[in-house]
Amino acid sequence: MPAEARPGQRVVYLRDRDDGQRMKDVIYVHPPSYKGTEFQNPAGLPRPVVAGLPFPWVTPMGDSGPLFREVERVKAELCRRLWGCQVCGHDLAPTAWVALERPEDGSPVITSAAIHHACLRLAVQHCPVLGDAANGYAFTEVFEDDIVTAADGAGHERAPAARWHLRPVWETSRPDRTRAFLTLSQVLERA
């Protein structure tokens, strides 16, 4: 039975993905509101700032403000499917950046959607998870077909519910390239 939208909400339907993951009916607020006023969260840079923090395009707005630890599933899925940036919402160039659990081919990807390098710097500066050196995340530049679903039963400690991983470079359409893995400090140092 389809979900019903409340005032100020609309229902967004996504079909099941090619990798078999079921996409349920999703209700989300658009445009979001903040403290009783309409809060626009358009794509682009600079990002709107709420409570001193940049407001990523895929972050949902709750009644009391941005839900910074949450991801608006519909927008994240659109970014993944259409090769868009989850921080600013704009289209990505042929290459973009992802965060990985480990600096190696086949490593689980922290989120399925990639981001621009400028947006990566913004994310690691303000996101307490990505910006925590203790997590040991690695960062690498990828093409769209470098991110693929992991095999069934793959157990990844910190990976999201949809399991994604970095395809080994020799399995890609560009097998002769050299892939570089950056640490958090190297991402922060790069201009």
Entry summary:
With 191 residues, the chain is of the alpha+beta class.
Q: How would you explain this protein's 3D organization?
A:
With 191 residues, this protein is α+β, with helices and mostly antiparallel strands. The chain is 14% helix and 20% strand. The chain contains 3 helices and 12 strands; from the N terminus they run E-E-E-E-E-E-E-E-H-E-H-E-E-E-H. The strands form 6 sheets. Strands 1-2 form a two-stranded antiparallel ribbon. The N and C termini lie far apart (50 Å).
Overall mean confidence score, pLDDT: 79
SSE succession: EEEEEEEEHEHEEEH
State the end-to-end CA separation: 50 Å
In what order do the strands lie side by side in the largest sheet? 1-2
Helix content: 10-25%
Count of strand segments: 12
Portion of residues in beta strands equals 15-25%
Give the helix/strand class.
alpha+beta
Name the shape in a single word.
Answer: globular
Poorly predicted residue ranges: 152-156, 158-162
Largest sheet: 2 strands, antiparallel
The helix tally amounts to 3
Indicate the radius of gyration in whole angstroms: 17 Å
